[in-house]
Design a protein that fits this description.
Helix content: 25-40%
Order of helices and strands: HEEEEEEHHEEEEEHEEEEEEEEEEE
CATH topology of the largest domain: Elongation Factor Tu (Ef-tu), domain 3
Largest sheet: 6 strands, mixed
């Protein structure tokens, strides 16, 4: 019996030693696996604040001249271009000579018309004398009535022939004057289409050059129909161009369309811009950011602080201490640097700015820093 008790005393300490060794080995194995006992996400934080937020409409369009201030100048007579007085970029005045068409053929036509008119005047003078002579003879009873009527008819025919000759002479003089091509307005030569020695057909379809008044220009921009009702004539806008980094232009809405393109549901608006320095050129691209709706004192956060779930529903992560909780929110106006929150949060609450992707509804977080509101 005593021997049995001795064996029991030996086995119990041995079993305890085995349990300790086994526990140590398991702990060592766990540490070797690299699995942290509890993952903590590192995030940056920001606060929900109140500020004004505006819905911005981005407009992009091209520069065009004002209506009736951009003219393609054509020769009204056919012929060879004898001289070009201007080139692209030149300033011209209204009425200034810009091109000369070879006028020698038309001068010959004018000489013919002058000769025809002189002959018609002579014929009329002769017919007038004949009519007066026949009237005198008829009164004296020497000439027959038929001779008098024939003389009067010849005078009328000669008078009509003179009118026709004088009309042809006037047309020849007009055609001669048209060989000198003048600018119809004061502006800048935008484009030259022909050179000296080339032939023109004397129609409006073949322009010699283009002249535009660029002291004021217009931005022609497409606007979705849904926003047209939110724009107003005479509204002042700030515009920018990539051609002039850091420089802005001031424009004024002068026309809003009453109809839109049914294929695109877009309407063209016209924004007038002062261009006294001549920096803006026809065809140049300009962009404008137009605030069309503003909410004052709205609850806002940076756009990065709003996350969306698999269904696209927005939420933010409210942070209290080391705990982050997903809070569904309703989004209002969104701008480039802030988003309006309509529900779910209050001013002053701290939310995750970055590092929130992949977090569940509740998570442990560690703040790396807090962005300025």
């Amino acid at each position: 019996m005593r021997a049995k008790n001795n064996r029991t005393r030996i086995l119990i300490p041995a079993a305890l030693a085995w349990l300790v060794l086994s526990s140590t080995a398991c702990s060592h194995t766990a540490s070797q696996s690299g699995e942290p006992p509890g993952a903590v996400a590192e995030v940056t934080l920001t606060q929900i604040t109140r500020a004004d937020v505006s819905q911005i409409l981005n407009l992009t369009g091209t520069i065009a001249a004002l209506p009736n201030r951009d003219v393609r100048v054509s020769s009204l007579v056919p012929g060879r271009v004898a001289e070009m007085k201007v080139a692209e970029g030149d300033r011209v005045r209204a009425g200034q000579l810009v091109a000369q068409i070879d006028d020698r053929p038309i001068r010959d036509q004018l000489a013919q018309a002058e000769a025809a008119a002189a002959q018609a005047r002579a014929n009329l003078a002769n017919a007038t004398l004949a009519r007066a002579r026949n009237e005198n003879l008829f009164e004296r009873g020497i000439a027959a009535r038929k001779d008098l009527e024939d003389a009067r008819t010849q005078e009328s025919v000669a008078a009509a022939a003179l009118q026709q000759a004088e009309a042809a002479l006037s047309l020849a003089r007009l055609q001669l004057a048209r060989t000198s091509v003048h600018s119809p307005l004061t502006g800048t030569v935008v484009k030259r289409f022909v050179n000296v020695g080339e032939q023109v057909d004397g129609t409006a379809g073949q322009a010699i050059l283009e002249v535009a008044d660029l002291t004021q220009v217009e931005l022609i921009a497409n606007v979705p129909a849904v926003y047209l009702g939110k724009l107003r004539v005479n509204r002042i806008l700030s515009l920018a161009s990539e051609a002039f980094p850091g420089q802005s232009f001031t424009g004024r809405v002068v026309a809003i369309p009453a109809a839109v393109d049914p294929a695109t549901n877009l309407g063209l608006i016209r924004i007038r811009i002062a261009n006294s320095k001549g920096l803006l050129r026809l065809g140049m691209f300009l962009s404008a950011q137009v605030p069309i709706e503003t909410h004052a004192g709205a609850l806002v956060v940076p756009p990065q602080a709003v996350y969306r779930d698999e269904e696209g529903q927005p939420h933010v992560y409210r942070v209290e201490g080391e705990n982050a909780t997903a809070v569904p929110v309703q989004v209002g106006i969104e701008s480039r640097d802030r988003v309006e929150l309509l529900s779910g949060v209050q001013a002053g609450e701290t939310v995750i700015l970055s590092g929130g992707y992949g977090l569940g509804e509740k998570a442990k977080v560690k703040a790396k820093g807090q962005a300025k509101p």
